[in-house]
Amino acid sequence: MSTHSPAPAVTNPVRAIAIGSLPVRIGMVCHRARRPLLLIGPPGVGKSELFELLARTLGIELRIVDLSLCEPSDLVGLPHQRDGRTVFAPPAWLPTDGEGIIVFEELNRAERFIQGPVLQLLTARRLNDYALPPGWSCAAAINPDDGNHDVRPLDAAMLSRFVVLNVCADRREWLHWARCNGVHPAVMSVVAADAAAFEHTSPRSWKHASDLVLALLPQERADRELVHETLAGVLPEAWVVVLTESLGRVRDGDLIAVDLLRRCATDAELKARVVLLREHGRTDVLRALADDLRELMASPLDLQRLCTQHDFALANFECLLGLLPGDLREPLQDALVGNPVAARVLEVDFAEMMTTGYQDRGHDRRICEWQRDDLLHHRVRLFVAGLCNHLRTEANLQTLRCTNAGRRLLGRILGDLRPQFRQPLLDCLAGLGLEPILADRRP
Question: Among residues 4, 115, 372, 400, which one has the fewest Cβ atoms lying within 10 Å of its Cβ?
Fold first, then answer.
């Protein structure tokens, strides 16, 4: 007689993970392993947006298939004759090359005859005559079968194909997302101020409210009945009242920090609005705007999202610095330089630079230019921070210690740096036991 205990029943995980960076990182692992990821969460929580962020982070394609709208031929293709045999022509949405993720939405609303082909693609990575390219993975998003949604439970065979994550909304993660996606400040203020914001109102509803507020013309903003009834179409009455009050506290054209980071250098109208605030002495508004910008610059998660979405460029940041009063510039530069992910925005290949690229790529000339311009001092500090990070992770550190070429290059870089920028690199080299070879430098 066997003495082994019976295996525990397989159940869905019950712990919910906040929509945000952790599920994205899990999704990256699943894609590399080519294991399908299943997100289970209520409507409007941000499941589709999470897959979009995952694809942007990986730099790959995303194809979303709504199974509630599909017929079997939309998946398996149409049959036709070839050499006396019946073969299936795959639908055009199925990839034939490249790398990406296919996301099946409404999997537990689809009929069984639709789920069957999906199960074959998840299991065998095939659909009749079609084979999923090696660079592609599959995923799905569903609402929970908790009695509140018109869905049917997925059977154990289907669930066993997935890495299953129950996901939920989290205000802190959503506010990070909102700051990087142009959500209106009044909406963010309401959500940030009340822990109950997501209890009976989905993040999607707050985003819809923001879209409506941003679409209001100035004269329409003054029409309280219009604003109230418009917002009542997406929010409960109590939240409409709170949001309307918050809108009354937002003034001066609702300048949004992330919009300035996106297009300050190219949008003349946007620059003119900032200049007008400065000329009219509205330092209170500019200071509040600078506070929002500083939060964005200081947050690794926010800056990573902005960079992933191609919404941050140093040219825009530096254009904005030039428009702000002098006492607001340095805190923004400090926040950016202090962000551990910020050095990558310089797009410097430090490994190449440490071999042949310092002078060949013009880094010595650029460092001298940056040091002459107060509005570019953060670039020098980011360069030093990026070099220090590279040296700390250098696989051939022992070789660098024992050869003159690398130590001589470090000495040249130190010689090019002014004293106020040099100390972090000196501290890094001392900690690593690297002694640079200093040469006489011209003044």
Answer: 4
